Automatic annotation (TrEMBL):
Keywords: Cytoplasm, Decarboxylase, Lyase, Porphyrin biosynthesis. Homodimer. SUPFAM superfamilies: UROD/MetE-like. Gene3D superfamilies: 3.20.20.210. It is found in: Cytoplasm. This is Uroporphyrinogen decarboxylase.
Length: 355
């Protein structure tokens, strides 16, 4: 079977008439669909309760917890899609990379990848490595009914930024030193990560995810030329690998105003936009044939209902002429966000876009 073919016999498990999937496919929708990046997480008291005493990575490997945490924001906010509760470093942990997610810090890698010999740490990912993902998605799709489940993975560049730096970074100096100084090693690293990422997304789709999002959160650190030369080929490989399933593919990054066109060219069906570029301008940069996702500044949620509604109207007005629009924040929900503000925002978007 070629990488582009979906396996014979797999039946789509989600209903294909949800507003979210329709918007991704640029079809008419009953209302603009809404979900939030990081909708499952610390903004919810019920999340903090079930996570008590359970380390982040352990929670990602327990199907009962994953199912409960994924469903929490769906129950509470009436969002149009669930996002599978996990983290971008889970597939790396699953192939044996020594890493942890440190509270308030993020992913920390014990032995950073800096040399060709270090590449040996990156073996192929098989479905057995992440059997808890298959199990959790089975539980979830049964509970979710018609609500689509979004699977996700970190893009090769963003994963490489953690693996080469050894942890979060503002400058990515080690990753960029490899990218500029040893382009062959860099290309091989990103290609390995593309294969691991593609395998991880396939597991999620085959288990029942009805869309996937590739998070290249930190790609905004790159110039368009460097992105095209050193990153796009690996991300394009990931998108090609899952093309044959026919599920919408979303591509998102932060600070990527200058990269919207190349990130779209990597093969996404839907391009995620942060709050720095209005959606109509983003559409001009990208050109026809793509749906857009975004892009309310997540900090607006601290400003009170009137400000949230005014800024939401701005987003909806900029989105009015788009071929397809999935409402979201421009980046993840911040942990101190009032969850009621999110619930009100979903209702506001639904009622003000009802057709
Ligand atoms: C860069 C990145 C990471 N992880 C992720 C990204 C890309 C998305 C983005 O740009 O925000 C992706 C991610 N991580 C998590 C999700 C959950 C699904 C959802 O969106 O609801 C998703 C989609 C859970 C999580 N991942 C993490 C948490 C917080 C840890 C906790 O709740 O104990 C959650 C809910 C940890 C994590 N993991 C990472 C960071 C930077 C952090 C935050 C560290 C901190 O502030 O404590 C790496």
């Amino acid at each position: 079977m070629s990488a582009n073919e979906s396996p014979a016999g797999r039946q789509p498990t989600a209903t294909y008439d949800s507003a979210f999937l329709k918007a991704c496919r640029r079809e008419p929708v009953p209302h603009t669909p809404v979900w939030f990046m990081r909708q499952a997480g610390r903004s919810l008291p019920e999340y903090r309760k079930v996570r008590e005493g359970v380390p982040m990575l352990e929670s990602c490997m327990r199907p009962d917890l994953v199912t409960e945490i994924t469903l929490q924001p769906v129950r509470r906010h009436d969002v149009d899609a669930a996002i599978y509760f996990s983290d971008i470093v889970v597939p790396l942990k699953a192939i044996g990379i020594d890493l942890d997610i440190k509270p308030g810090v993020g992913p920390v890698v014990e032995r950073p990848i800096r040399t060709r010999a270090d590449l040996a740490q990156l073996r192929d990912l098989t479905p057995d490595d992440v059997s808890y993902v298959t199990e959790a998605i089975g539980l979830l799709t049964a509970e979710l009914g018609a609500t689509p489940l979004i699977g996700f993975a970190g893009a090769p560049f963003t994963l490489a930024s953690y693996l080469v730096e050894g942890g979060p970074s503002r400058t990515y100096e080690n990753a960029k030193a490899m990218m500029y100084g040893d382009p062959e090693l860099w290309a091989d690293l990103l290609d390995r990560l593309a294969e691991i990422t593609a395998a991880f997304l396939k597991v999620q789709i085959e288990a029942g995810a009805s869309a996937v999002q590739l998070f290249d959160s930190w790609a905004g650190a790159l110039s368009p030329a460097d992105y095209r030369r050193s990153v796009l080929p690996a991300s394009a490989k990931v998108f090609r690998a899952v093309e044959g399933y026919g599920v919408p593919r979303i591509h998102f990054g932060v600070g990527t105003g200058e990269l919207l066109k190349p990130m779209s060219d990597a093969g996404a069906d839907v391009v995620g936009v942060d709050w720095r570029v209005p959606l109509d301008e983003a559409a001009r940069r990208i050109g026809p044939g793509k749906a857009l996702q975004g892009n309310l500044d997540p900090t607006v949620l601290f400003a009170g209902t009137e400000a949230v509604e005014a800024k939401t109207r701005e987003v909806l007005e900029a989105a009015a002429g788009l071929e397809g629009h999935v409402f979201n924040l421009g980046h993840g929900v911040m942990p101190s966000t009032d969850p009621d503000a999110l619930t009100r925002l979903v209702e506001y978007v639904h009622t003000h876009t009802a057709r």
